[in-house]
Prior knowledge:
Elements: H1 4-25, E1 37-38, E2 46-47, E3 50-52, E4 80-85, E5 99-105, E6 110-115, E7 121-127, E8 130-135, E9 144-149, E10 154-157, E11 162-167, E12 173-179, E13 187-188, H2 189-194, H3 202-209, H4 213-220
Antiparallel strand pairs: 1-3, 2-3, 4-5, 5-12, 6-11, 6-13, 7-10, 7-12, 8-9, 8-11
Helix pairs in contact: 3-4
Amino acid sequence: YLPMRSLIFLAILSLLALTFPVSIASEPSPVQDFCVGVNTPSDGVFVNGKFCKDPKLATVDDFFFTGLDRQRIATNAVGTNVTPVFADNLPGLNTLGIAFARVDYAPNGLIPPHTHPRASEFLIVQEGSLYAGFVSSDQDGNRLFSKILNKGDLIVFPVGLIHFHVNVGRGPAVAFTAFNSQNPGLITIAKTVFGSNPRINPNALAKAFQLDPRIVMSLQTKF
């Protein structure tokens, strides 16, 4: 028979084996019904980047968001307008591990190649047609998985992989996205590479992208 100390050690290892994969694959589980996020410490305790309102003071409006049926005009440089529904503007989402957004696309508008380091993403088309896809990692050969999506179609972008979506229809388009994190994070590839603060040495980027340094410096002025 194993000594008691060895049995205890094995029991601890078994518990770690069961719990550790879960802890690194998802956000912490809440230990109460909800934790409505507020920004001032006088209102409660600090949990997952937010202070929790006293649960007895929570109301239905803490869990309610309206206006996702309204079209937004896409006026930025890439022709899209994103309406996020995150814990910052829907406090009841705090600690629930989910987030949501509406995306409005002008004709030819796009969401440029980007990643979400902390979440996978659903994209479902409400109106119009989108060309959407993601690229696998270097280890998988950087394969492109892409599809033309029409109304009612859905695609999933795995966590951390570069992905994009662009309006290829004749008019405006609308899509909704959902994330399995309340704070999925956003790394826009072009903005990160060419718009860092301070700037990355253009000679380094020129070698990385096999470009003339003057082209790199021109790109850096755009971000």
